[in-house]
Please model this.
Amino acid sequence: MGIPRFEASGHLPLGRHVCTLDEFEEAFVDAPTFATSSTRGRLFSDFLAALAWLQSHYAADLVERAWVGGGFTSEKLDPTDIDVTFVVSDDAHEALGEVKQGKLLKLLRKGGFKGVGLSVDGFMMIRERIALPWFGSGVGDAGQDYFLKRGAWDDWWSRDRANVAAGDPPVIEDAEPVRGYVEVSV
Model:
């Protein structure tokens, strides 16, 4: 576990880098590189508050991991938010029932934590347990939707949106995997 050093580009090396919550705070909030940041401490607190909100409003065991990307996992001194895909337990999600599932989906469909005053662009991926993902030479029917979403999130957090201004739609020039992101164990 642990976070590798930033590359010359100011980003993490390509890949998903697994760490604990303490290691995440140490690397992206408490590191000497960020000693003069005016936003990182607050954003980390917002991240913890979003996580606690999910655990208290839905289920304590709902979130298994958090995939964090964007400016917060770069050398950017003062990012404006923290971008997170909450990896949710399929069992805990199923136990919520339809009404709570619908509310959770609505909250995390478009980064809904900004609506509750937190600078967290939060999204959700439900982690399914698939015993055998393969069927013949491809992915079996049981896992197609899950593996599609998992791959899409991995691809998304590996991009650097260098060719657009904030708020602009993505462009094909930024579709290459060029940076890493972080998986925080919850």
